Amino acid sequence: MNNVLVIEDNETLNEVFCRTVNDLDDFKVSGSYLNAENAIANLKRDWPNLILMDIELPGINGIEATKKIKQIHPEVLIIMITVFENSKYVFDALCAGACGYLTKNATGSKIEKALKEAINGGAPMSIQIAKMVVESFRKAPTSVLTTKETEVLSLLAKGNSYKGVALKMNISPNTIKYHVKNIYDKLEVHDKESAIEEANNRRII
Description:
By secondary structure, the protein is α/β, with parallel strands linked by helices. It has 2 domains: 2-138, Rossmann fold, CATH 3.40.50.2300; 147-201, Winged helix-like DNA-binding domain superfamily/Winged helix DNA-binding domain (Arc Repressor Mutant, subunit A, Orthogonal Bundle). It has helices at residues 11-22, 36-41, 43-46, 62-72, 87-96, 108-119, 127-138, 147-157, 162-169, 173-187, 192-201; strands spanning 2-7, 27-33, 50-54, 77-82, 100-103. Strands 2-1-3-4-5 form a 5-stranded parallel sheet, with helices on both faces.
């Protein structure tokens, strides 16, 4: 029998996950928590084989919790469950030690499949997320741009104006201009179109 820990702050979803797991022949819920702090405090008592955990938890988020849990219980398999369809969250979760990733709209059968796949050494994730992960690994491993500069250039490449980028990133237009100047210098270009083309060629964006 495989023990499963459920960490989800939405009580309704928490109950759904627990019920889904307990309805399976080879799995049972060994603990259920609304936050990571309590789950970590009781980890040695519950000692799960698998954990279903939300990323956006109150207090310690799921990514940080994954790191802490892995320090205590390195062998545990952690599947992140979240609403986010965002490659950064995907990549951060996997880098932290998660073995797989599902969206919150996953059906009971998909959750069952993910649990069984993880136990058998697989990496369960949706098709959309798998594509994002592959794309993340295709990016240049040593980008000359900072995270902020990459975000600025990505937004500009999508057709946003300087003002639009500033609003999306919640920073001033002058700061955007500063980042753009640094981008031009680092990519050795003199205009936006050339910067976008060069960044695409280097697989930075």
